[in-house]
Amino acid sequence: MYKVKVTDNFSSAHNLREYEGNCEKLHGHNWQIEVSLKGEELDELGMLVDFRELKKEVKNILNTLDHTYLNDHEYFSRVNPTSENIAHFIYKKLKSRFKDRMDSVTVWESNNSSAEYYE
């Protein structure tokens, strides 16, 4: 089994609806994202996936979130913009492109707090 990972980041603001505590207030993060793909077979060049292709797809998704108020985003207007839900959102977007090679998406909201989504 092979696994490849890329990381990227974006900055945005959000507040957690119906949360009792500081995170209910408007605040922001410099989010760090890690995307992991897996597979048993490599292509004719010996790659699971071209890093350039994966980075491009990740960047396209993160560009829709970067320097925004997440609560105004179409998806997060219905779903609380928690780290868990951000990981789920990114995973589902990438799964439509990378299908059965998707492994996981980890979202770091600080140096010591992260959430991971996988199926």
UniProtKB/TrEMBL annotation:
Q: What family does the entry list?
A: Belongs to the PTPS family. QueD subfamily.
What does the note under cofactor report? Binds 1 zinc ion per subunit.
Cofactor(s) required, per the database record: Zn(2+)
Query: What keywords tag this UniProt record?
Result: Lyase, Metal-binding, Queuosine biosynthesis, Zinc
Q: Where does Zn(2+) bind?
A: 14, 27, 29
For this protein, the parts annotated as crossing the membrane are none
Give, as in the UniProt entry, the pathway in which the protein acts. Answer: Purine metabolism; 7-cyano-7-deazaguanine biosynthesis
Q: What is this protein called?
A: 6-carboxy-5,6,7,8-tetrahydropterin synthase
Q: Cite the source lineage.
A: Bacteria, Pseudomonadati, Deferribacterota, Deferribacteres, Deferribacterales
Q: Which Gene3D superfamilies match?
A: 6-pyruvoyl tetrahydropterin synthase/QueD
Give the molecular function GO annotations. 6-carboxytetrahydropterin synthase activity; metal ion binding
The EC designation for this entry is 4.-.-.-
Output the InterPro entries linked to this UniProt entry. Answer: 6-PTP_synth/QueD, 6-PTP_synth/QueD_sf
* Residues at the active site: 23 (proton acceptor), 67 (charge relay system), 109 (charge relay system)
What is its EC class? Answer: lyase
Catalyses which reaction(s): 7,8-dihydroneopterin 3'-triphosphate + H2O = 6-carboxy-5,6,7,8-tetrahydropterin + triphosphate + acetaldehyde + 2 H(+)
Pfam families for this protein: PTPS
One biological process term from GO is: tRNA queuosine(34) biosynthetic process
